[in-house]
Design brief:
2 domains
């Protein structure tokens, strides 16, 4: 009976993880360039049945656990903004930025603006890497961004937005603010494919599928409730057994 309680508790913990992931996806349904989380499940160790079963060859499972499979980097819908400093990535890849703490990072959030130092920065304050500075007297309407990332203003080239990609994007580490850092599992950043381009005056929407997210949430809630009911039933059976013993 105690084994059953531990199994059910493991299942509830796994479903809670799934609910947390779905909740995060729904909360970021309107976040520019957001990529939804991938969560799966795997079964835990099995044990020989022993005395409670008919045969010693019977195996009893010990529950399941949630396995986070990174993120789904499929293309989000493009939304026209007509703001010159907005860009959307089309195709696989990322833009190189430097976070406020100095770390190199990658992002697909192309919601740029000019900061107080006349530099192009992301919505969360991340600076393009290498940085691009807009001359005094230049307004956002003077800025043009080519499909290969070249930034110019009034016919003068200001720099280029670096487009890169990694071997395994789903293993990138999320550090918040729509940014990711590389690690040994994701691989280092290399030049993005030639097919990856930028679209000026456009932003990439979140790739969260609202209908699928709601379905996943309901499924996880129902499974959580059923597992909770199993624990309540087991507790009642133990109470009955204790009453008979007395």
């Amino acid at each position: 009976m105690l084994e059953g309680l531990r199994t059910a508790a493991a299942g509830m913990k796994a479903q809670q993880f799934k609910l947390d992931a779905v909740s995060n996806d729904l909360a970021n349904a309107n976040t520019t360039g957001y990529k939804r989380l991938r969560v799966g499940f795997s079964d835990l160790l099995y044990e020989q049945g022993g005395r409670p079963t008919i045969s010693n060859e019977a195996q009893l499972g010990t529950g399941s656990r949630a396995v986070q499979g990174g993120r789904t980097f499929e293309q989000g819908n493009l939304t026209r903004t007509d703001k010159p400093t907005d860009v959307a990535l089309q195709g696989p890849g990322f833009m190189k930025v430097k976070l406020a703490d100095g770390r190199d990072a990658l992002t697909r959030d192309g919601n740029f603006h000019i900061d107080s130092s006349r530099r192009l920065v992301t919505s969360f304050g991340g600076m393009l890497n290498p940085s691009i500075t807009v001359p005094e007297g230049t307004t956002e309407s003077d800025i043009s961004i080519a499909r290969d990332g070249t930034v110019a203003a009034k016919g003068q080239a200001l720099g280029r937005i670096q487009l890169v990609n990694v071997r395994s994007p789903q293993n990138l580490e999320s550090v918040g603010d729509n940014a990711f850092t590389t690690n040994a599992r994701s691989g280092n950043a290399v030049a993005a494919p030639a097919t990856t381009t930028l679209e000026q005056g456009t932003l990439e929407a979140s790739n969260t599928d609202m209908a699928q997210a709601m379905t996943d949430m309901i499924e996880a809630q129902r499974t959580y409730q059923l597992t909770s009911k199993a624990i309540q039933t087991a507790d009642q059976m133990m109470e009955i057994a204790n009453g008979v013993k007395r």
